[in-house]
């Protein structure tokens, strides 16, 4: 059975970042492999070019942005969010970060996207429950450093359907935050705040 993304994401421009042609969100939830804009992450590529591509994708988005990243792409997205000017980042409603790299052999690639250890400036969720041999505790410090909610190790306690429901709830919360932000802006423009 293939699960389709709920109607709420139509409120978002989805930007995906991954190295894989079949990313985790596609394998687990049957979501499309690529969003409205897809950035293919080259681990040997130039991070400045990636930053410019992400800036451009966010500026071109016709709705609030939902970042969806996998593996090393999670670090690239957090690096971009922490170091980009606020006029780019404020367009992002939230992020779903699938299976961030935690293995030591990938430390050099992760270091390419080293950034200050501050919470991301938007709501986010780390979804890390399918990496072979991974312990959910491995992801807790990373999720904490990003200020993210952690959904890890669910393969031992739950089904893919519960992970899907958690992802849907996150999208719904992100949607609510976009609406609240729009209301605040409208009130500020009218001088009611």
Walk me through this protein's architecture:
This protein has a six-stranded parallel sheet, with helices on both faces. Helix content is 42%, strand content 18%. The chain has eight helices and six strands, in the order βαβαβααβαβαβαα.
Percentage of residues in helical conformation:
40-55%
Largest sheet: spatial strand order: 2-1-3-4-5-6
Structure classification:
alpha/beta
Intertermini distance: 48 Å
Query: How large a portion of the residues is in β-strands, by DSSP E?
Result: 15-25%
Radius of gyration from the alpha-carbon trace, in angstroms:
16 Å
What is the arithmetic mean of pLDDT? 78
By DSSP (H or I, 4+ residues per run), the number of helices equals 8
Global shape: globular
Order of helices and strands: EHEHEHHEHEHEHH
| Biggest β-sheet strands, sense, barrel | 6 strands, parallel
Tell how many strands the DSSP assignment holds: 6
Low-confidence stretches: 1-9, 154-160
Which labels suit this protein?
193 residues, alpha/beta, 6-stranded parallel sheet, globular, disordered N terminus
């Amino acid at each position: 059975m293939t699960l389709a993304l709920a109607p709420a994401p139509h409120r978002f421009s989805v930007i995906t970042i991954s190295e894989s042609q079949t990313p985790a969100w596609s394998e687990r939830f049957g979501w499309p492999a690529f969003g409205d804009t897809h950035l293919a992450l080259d681990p040997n590529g130039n991070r400045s070019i990636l930053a410019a591509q992400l800036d451009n994708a966010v500026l071109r988005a016709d709705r609030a942005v939902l970042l969806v990243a996998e593996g090393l792409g999670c670090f690239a997205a957090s690096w971009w969010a922490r170091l980009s000017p606020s006029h780019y980042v404020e367009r992002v409603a939230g992020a779903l970060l699938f299976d961030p790299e935690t293995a030591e052999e990938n430390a050099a690639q992760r270091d390419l996207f080293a950034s200050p250890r501050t919470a991301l400036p938007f709501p986010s969720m780390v979804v890390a429950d399918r990496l072979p041999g991974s312990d959910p505790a491995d992801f807790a410090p990373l999720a904490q450093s990003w200020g993210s909610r952690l959904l890890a190790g669910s393969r031992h306690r739950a089904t893919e359907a519960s992970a899907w429901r958690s992802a849907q709830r996150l999208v719904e919360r992100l949607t609510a935050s976009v609406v609240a932000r729009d209301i605040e802006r409208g009130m500020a423009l009218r001088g009611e705040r």
